[in-house]
Amino acid sequence: MPTVVNVGVVGDNGPLPETMGATNDDYGREQLFSLAHFVRTTFLQLMAATAVLVVGSAVALNFFDTTEEYRRDNINVLFQQRTKGLVRDLQFQIDSFELDLVSLGTLMQLQPNAKRSQFRVAFDRLNDKITGRWASLSYAPIVPDAERAFIESAAQLDLNDPTLVIRGGVVLDLTLAPINPIEPEYIPVYYIEPFHAITKGAVLFNMASVDWVNHTVNRAHSTQATQASPPFKGVLTPGASEEFGVSLMHPFNFLPGLQSGKEGYQGLILGLLRLRTVLEVFTKSYGDPHSVLLIDVSSSSTPFTTSPMLLYKVEVDSKGTHTKLLSDADLQEALHADLLYDGVVNCFSRTWRLLVVGQKSDYEHTTLQLNIIVLVSMITVTLLICALVFINTVLNYNKSRRSETMISKLEVELDKICDRKKADDELNRVAEDLRLFIDTANAPILGIDQDGRVNEWNLKAAELVGYGSNEVMGRDLVQEFISPEHRGAVKEVFDNALTGLVTSAFEFQLFSKAGVPIELLLNANPRRNVAGNIVGVVGVGQDLTAKRMAMETEVDLAKAKAANDAKSQFLANMSHEMR
Fold it and tell me: What gap in Å lies between CA 394 and CA 39, rounded to an integer?
C-alpha cells in the first residue's frame, strides 16, 4: 500500500498560529509594533501608488479632451464613411437586377419556341423579387416588320384571345402610329408577367413605334449589353397612382444549332423597375432618421429627356417612412444641410445622383458615449493598477511578519508528518507480512468482490485447483469453477457474507483445471475496507478430497470383507449340509 502524506500549509492570509508561551498582552504589543513598522517600511510604495493614480487620471482627462475635439471635427467623416458603405450595397443591388433578366433570357435562348406557360414558370421562380422591385417582366422578339401578322396570330393562339391586335402607341397614353416608318423591324411585347388588366394592354405593343423606347432598344441591340430607359411616369400596378419607373432591356441572340432555322432570331427581356420601391428599401436599411433624394443626371446626349430629372425624396423619422416627388425646394434644402453625402450610382446606361441628409445630433450622441466609455475605462484601469500595488505591498509585508511563526508551525507539522510516515511504514510492513502469510498458508484462501469475481487466490489454492492467480483474477468464481449442483448453495453463502453474515464449515465442490472435482470445506467471512464497508468475501478452506476418498475406500473394504465373510459362511454351511 503506497504511503499518503498530507501536508498542511498556513496561507498568507490565514489566521496566525498561536505562539507557545505567548500571552494576549504580548500579542497586542506585537500588533502595535507591526502597524508602526508597516507605515515606515511601505511609505515609498504607497507614494508610488498615489503617483500612478494622479498621473493616470491626468492622462485620461487629457485623452478625453483630445478625443472630444476630434469628435466634433470628424462627425462628417464618420457620416460619409457609413453612407459610402450603404451606397455600395445599393449599387450591388442595382447590378444584381440584371441576373433576373439574364435568367429569363437564357430560357428564350435555349428554347426560342417557348410557350407563355413556360415563361410563366420561369417568372414564378423570381416572384418573391418581382413582387417588390419589379412591376413586370416581359419578352419581346425582334422580327422583320413583314412578320407582324404571323406574330399577331401566334399571340392570339397562345393567349386564346382573338381580340388581340397589333398595338402601337396605345400603352403609356402615347398616340403614335402603329408602324414606325424609319424602323423596318417589329419589336412586340409578346409575353408579360404578372398578367393583369394593365399589362394585357401592352401585349403586342410595338416598342419600335416610340422614339425614346426605340432608342434604348437600339442601344441594347448595338452594344449587346443591358440598358436602362429614361425614367418615365405611369400607372405600373392596378389600383395604384402614377409613379416613376425605368425599363431595363437585356438583349440576347438565339444560340446556333439549338433550333434549326432560328439562328438569326434576336430578342429582349424587359424589366419594369419601380424606382420608389428601390429607394425605400435602401432608405430603411440606413436605420437613423435621415432623408434620401434621387435625381437622374444622365448625359444630356441621351435624347427625349432633360437633365437633371428630379425623382423622389424619401424621409425617415420616428413616425415611419414618407415618400414624395422631389422638388427644387427640397433639393436646395438638402444641399445646405450640415451632414450631406453627395454621390452617384449607375443603373446600367443611366446615372443617378443620390443625396443622403443625416442628423448631426445622432452622431454626436453616439460618439460622446464612446468617449465617455473610453474615459471611464482608462480611470478604471488606473484605479486597478493602484489597488494592485497597494495589495501587493500589504501582502509582502504580511509575509515577512509571519515568516518566523510559519516556520515554527511547519516544524511542528513536519514532526507530525515524520510520525505519520513511521506509522505508515509499520502498516506497510504488517500488510506485507499478512500478504506473505496468505500466499504461503497451507490452506486454500480465496476471495471475491461484490460482483462475485475472484480477487484473492493464494498459492495453495493455485496448487490445489491448477489455476494460477493470473488465470482466475476477475473471473466469476461460482459460474466458472463450482460444480452445477453446488452453485445455488455456494452463491447463497457468498450473498449472505456480503450482507455481513459469517458462514462456517460449508462443503462444496469445484473443478480443477484438469476437470477433476475437488471437495472443499470453507469458512466465508465478509471483507471490509478501511471505512468498515463490506467490499467482498474472503474464505479459508480445507481440502476434503483425499479424506473423502479414504472414507469411500474404507466403506468399500468393509463391504468387500462383509461379502467375503458371507461367502465363507455360505460355503461352510453348504459343506456342513453335504456331510
Answer: 10
pLDDT the model gives residue 345: 92
Q: What DSSP string describes 349-382?
A: TEEEEEEEEE-HHHHHHHHHHHHHHHHHHHHHHH
Cell of 281: 428599401
- Show contacts of 497-505: CB within 8 Å, 24+ apart: 497/524, 497/525, 497/526, 497/537, 498/450, 498/526, 498/534, 498/536, 498/537, 499/526, 499/534, 500/526, 500/534, 501/526, 502/526
Q: How is residue 397 written as a grid cell?
A: 509585508
Of the pLDDT bands very low, low, confident and very high (cuts 50, 70, 90), residue 16 is very low
Distances (CA, A) of 286 to 76, 352, 435: 16, 19, 84
Instruction: Decide: residue 359, CB within 10 A, 0-12 exposed, 13-18 middle, 19+ buried.
Output: middle
* C-alpha radius of gyration, the chain, whole number: 53
Strand partners, 185: 144
Separation of alpha carbons 523 and 319, rounded Å: 94
Residue labelled with grid coordinates 436599411: 285
Residue 278's identity, in one-letter code, is V
Better-scored residue on pLDDT, 382 or 306: 382
Q: State the Cα–Cα distance between residues 148 and 249, nearest whole angstrom.
A: 21
Q: The cell 498458508 sits on which residue?
A: 441
Which residues make Cβ contacts (< 8 Å) with residue 158, sequence separation at least 6? 115, 116
Kindly state the percentage of the chain with pLDDT values over 90: 4
